[in-house]
Specification:
This protein is mainly alpha-helical. It is built from 21 helices and 4 strands. A hairpin with a 3-residue loop joins strand 3 and strand 4.
């Protein structure tokens, strides 16, 4: 009699200890997410200019400064994110105080909660299914760093998606359960209040929820009203100008789509299309009829995946636009995989291979992330900024750009100046105006010529305000640099910055 092979012994061992192993892997995945997110929380810098912009707009809300300014306003610090992006981070600043970690705290909390809530939301399907969902989520989040943890709306929207899926799964299809409908509507409204296109991430869940028994158009209408109310409520406050916000949205819509990146995004989106495999497997092997609500849920999800290609391929966007589909992705896989009993081992093996592939691909991504954290360099740059503030204790100081994209990250740390109540009039969103030939306002140029700010910090040795932006055009119209050079002169050089002082 032949002894069992190593392969058969391994299969037997996994089958016998599947529950425990899945629990261990889920725990390790969660701890890895926490490690990465905590490292970035503790890191004193940013990996993207949009993060500092979000943080500073949020911080200024506490002093009543407007989040959205019209295109003709003398300050160029608005962005296309919705009010709720800034409200969430403003709460963090209010609770913690003015610091770089405070601006990251909300995204850190969201990122670490996602695997936990995914596990809890699928617990009714059994421990193994819940653990498998948590593992998949953790691996995908690590594959997508820093996008899954940075100070932008994506991690917050993904968390809201998890909450919506939990509510849809926890509701009884035989009862109206308005509480769960309200949870889904509010979650969707909060997400849309962060990014206008976020409704596409929630459409599959909303449709599925409303198609269940004893629900229908009335439920949908009530949810739509509730969600819309959440979106519009912030605009009742003076710090959120609806007209100014609309101006920036229209400007953003004008952006063309980067056709050369479409193939990349399609390949990336293939990860999120994984439920197609499991859906086809159900059709082939389950022998059970798929309910209308389930089929509609699946096909709306597929349609929304395709729809996201439009905003994801706009100039300045990216593949991270798929990330908020995370909760629906896991829900779809677990739903379909759980229906297949005939080929159960094969189906779950496919799921395991999918997770393994993402994990293997994600290892170098995680390594690159940690290499990108230049702790000492950022600390030195920030020390230089603090030394400059100490050298000019009674002068207003603002951060400007030079001509080199390589030194541009130094300007992210205008955060230290603004948190210390120094002016904030120019930031990355300014490049949007020059891209679309929107002229700089006369008031802005008058402010520069009149030296409204005493001192500007420019990366050392560089010509002020001449950098080519991400769109291949100057970040600011040349009229700004001309006005600046007419009013300011380089007075002193520090380690990383030159101090340009008003000539008047």
């Amino acid at each position: 009699m032949k002894s069992p092979s190593a392969k058969s012994r391994a299969v037997e061992f996994f089958s016998r200890n599947r529950k425990g192993l899945l629990g261990v892997f889920a725990g390790l995945g969660f701890l890895n997410v926490v490690l990465v997110a905590a490292s970035y929380l503790a890191y004193p810098g940013y990996l993207d200019h949009g993060e500092s912009s979000v943080a500073l707009i949020s911080w200024r809300l506490l002093d009543g400064a407007p989040a959205f300014l019209s295109l003709g306003d003398p300050a160029l610090v608005s962005n296309v994110y919705g009010p709720l992006t800034y409200i969430v981070h403003a709460v963090s600043f209010w609770l913690i105080g003015p610091s770089v970690p405070a601006g990251k705290a909300a995204s850190f909390l969201a990122a670490t909660l996602i695997p936990v809530l995914v596990f809890l939301s699928h617990r009714r399907r059994g421990f193994e299914a819940a653990a498998a969902g948590a593992i998949f989520v953790s691996v995908l989040m690590l594959f997508l760093i820093p996008f899954s943890i940075w100070t932008r709306p994506e991690s917050l929207m993904a968390l809201l998606g998890v909450i919506a899926v939990w509510a849809a799964n926890a509701s009884d299809p035989k009862k109206l359960e308005w509480v769960m409908s309200a949870v889904i509507a509010v979650a969707a409204g909060l997400a849309v209040g962060m990014k206008l296109h976020a409704g596409v991430y929630f459409a599959p869940v909303v449709v599925f929820h409303c198609l269940n028994e004893k629900r229908g158009f009335k439920t949908f209408a009530a949810m739509a009203v509730a969600g819309l109310a959440v979106v519009l409520l912030p605009f009742a406050f003076s710090v959120f100008s609806l007209s100014a916000f609309a101006e920036w949205i229209v400007l953003h819509i004008k952006k063309g789509n980067a056709i050369e990146f479409v193939s990349k995004f399609v390949r990336y989106g293939a990860i999120y299309a994984a439920p197609v495999l499991f859906y086809l497997a159900v059709r082939r092997w389950s022998g059970r009829r798929i309910a209308l609500a389930e089929k509609t849920y699946f096909w709306v999800f597929v349609a929304c995946l395709v729809a996201v290609l439009f905003p994801a391929t706009k100039a300045g966007a990216g593949a991270y636009y798929f990330f908020p589909f995370l909760a629906v992705l896991v829900d779809q896989i677990l739903r379909h995989a759980g229906r297949i009993k005939k080929k159960e081992t094969m189906v779950w093996s496919v799921a395991g291979v999918l997770v393994a592939v993402i994990m293997i691909v994600g290892v170098p991504v995680q390594k690159r992330f940690f290499r990108a954290l230049h702790w000492q360099e950022v600390a030195d740059v920030q020390s230089d900024i603090r030394a400059i503030m100490a050298a000019y204790p009674d002068r207003t100081i603002e951060m400007g750009i030079g001509h080199s994209i390589k030194t541009y990250p130094r300007t992210y740390y205008r955060t230290l100046l603004v948190l210390a109540d120094h002016p904030y009039t120019i930031d990355a969103p300014a490049m949007e105006l020059n891209k679309w030939n929107v002229p700089l306002s006369d008031d802005l140029l008058a402010m520069v010529r009149g030296c409204n700010t005493d001192i500007w910090l420019i990366p050392k040795g560089e010509s002020p305000f001449t950098m080519i932006g991400y769109y291949g055009t100057p970040m600011l119209d040349t009229s700004f640099a001309d006005a600046f050079l007419g009013s300011y002169a380089k007075a002193k050089s520090f380690e990383f910055f030159d101090a340009w002082v008003c000539k008047i």
